[in-house]
Each structure stands twice: as structure tokens, then as C-alpha cells.
Amino acid sequence: MTYTTVHVPISGGDSAVNCLVTGSGPALVLVHGTGATPEGNWGPVIDALKGRYTIVAPTLSGSGATIDTGSPLTVDDLIAQVLGAVDAAGLDAFHLAGHSLGATVAAAVAGAHPKRVRSLFLHAGWAVTDPWQEFQFGLWQRLLRTDKDLLSRVLQVTAIGAGTLARRRIEDFEQGVAGFNELFDAEGMARQSELNTRVDITAALARITAPTLVVSGSQDLIVPPHHQKELADAIAGARYVVLDSGHALPFELPEVFAHTLTDFVDRHQADTASAPAA
Fold first, then answer.
1. Would residue 100 show up in a list of annotated catalytic residues for this protein?
2. Residues in the chain where the model's pLDDT stays below 50
3. Which residue, 32, 17, 135, is CA-closest to 66?
4. What is the reported pLDDT for 237?
């Protein structure tokens, strides 16, 4: 995987965004969720599609090797980082996909720049933070600033669906904790979690024109399914699909997640390729 650094101005000053760019062909932009990284969130998707798509996946402030001033984040900051990565790669129109906070950011990007987005895939996103989430993301911040291992353990039993949990051994739980501990930057994830407490992108949703698929996990305790249904209802023509999983579908059932996304993007890329020239 090739990473480049893109300097993007955000509300707190300069951000040096670590951005994965790989593959060739039509552009697909991937936006990761809270605490994740491009490869951590999208590894199987990248492997499946890099042979026929140019994949651009920015590392948002608070994750991975991206550096900024450490000030509070806004959705507009993360929109700027996504678009900065795309522009630096020399891309105009692109397919766009996001998971969790990344889905919220992707929807906001599609609303801000509707002519640039060819298709939009949203998994486990939300439009407006409700009291359930505000309390939950406040708890995440406290745990992260006490001992991130505690949050990694909480997420083993809240982010994953009941069917998968029932098949796990104690060794699987401990392996999952170790993986999350390696992935998460405690202070950065706490900053993203604080942003999660004050999300409101409702104004952007009516401006989305791209073909959109909204995917929900039926057992999602972190962003309950009604949030995804509300997203789909607010986006003109959006399809809504429910899968038997928890919130962490990319980690819980990576093959299912990758197949659902690749099938959607391939179909709409075929539609784009067959459309008559303007």
C-alpha cells in the first residue's frame, strides 16, 4: 500500500493527512469510522477492488499517522480532509463509501458536492446524535482517557452481533481486544468520539443526488438501525438494506461487508460507463 501526505487546512490549523492511494481505474473513496484506519476498516474491500479501481482512503484526524494541532474536530474538518485527499490524487468524480462516523462524513461530502459523487455507500451512519449516542460516546471518552484497554473490552460485547459472539472463545475475545488496542490512538479516538456527540448533517441529506445504498446491522447497539433508516428516508431514492450483524460489520463479517460494497459499486460503475456522453 502506498501512503502520501496531503496538507489540508482545517478549523484548528494545518493537518498533515496520511492518505492511502492504490490501484487504477475509476475512483473509489473510502472513509473510515471512529478510531479506525483505512486498512483496518477497509482491508478486504481494498484487496478486492484495487485491481480495477483507484482507491483513495484518507486517515482522518485522530487516527493513524495523520497530524494536526489537536483542537476539537468538526464534520466540516473531516469533509475538507476527504476532499483534500481526492483533489491531491487528481480525481474529479468518484464513488464514495463510509462506515460509522465515516458514513456520516461521506453523506456530508455527497451533500456538499453532489455532482462529484457517482454512488454513495453508507454503513452504520447517522444524521443527528441522540441522547443514547451522546451518553455512549461520552463514556467512550472517559474510558479512553483512563485506559483504552477498557474500551477495547467494552466494544467486544457491544460492537459485535449476538450470533458472532455466541461462537467466540475466550481466546477470540482477547485477540479482539489486542487488535483494537493496536488500532486505537486513545487521545485521537477520544477527539473523534467528542465530535460524535454533536453530529448534525440533516441539511446536507436533501442535496444528495448520487445513487445511495444505506446498510444497517440488525443488532447494531452503537448506531441502532433506526438511524440508518432515517438516513435512507432523507436521501432521495436511497435503498435500505439490513444485514444480520452488529455495528462492527467490517471486522465481524469482512467478506459479507466487502461483497455488499463491491457489488454496489461495480453495478453503478457499469451504469456510469454505459451512460451516453453529455
1. yes
2. 277-278
3. 17
4. 97
pTM of the model: 0.96
Phi, psi of 185 (to 5 degrees): -100, 115
Q: Which of 32, 99, 227, 247 is catalytic?
A: 247
Please pick, among 185, 193, 220, 227, the residue that the annotation labels catalytic: 220
Q: What is the dihedral of CA 63, 64, 70, 72, to 10 degrees?
A: -10
Say which residue the cell 474491500 belongs to.
45
Cα–Cα distance for residue pair 70/192, rounded to 1 Å:
11
Catalytic residue among 15, 61, 63, 100: 100
Nearest to 49 by CA among 86, 24, 18: 24
Q: Are strands 54-58 and 13-23 parallel, antiparallel or unpaired?
A: antiparallel
In whole angstroms, give the CA distance from residue 164 to residue 246. 9
Report the amino acid identity of residue 258: A
Residue 268 CA, distance from chain mean position? 20
What is the 8-class DSSP label of residue 26?
Answer: S
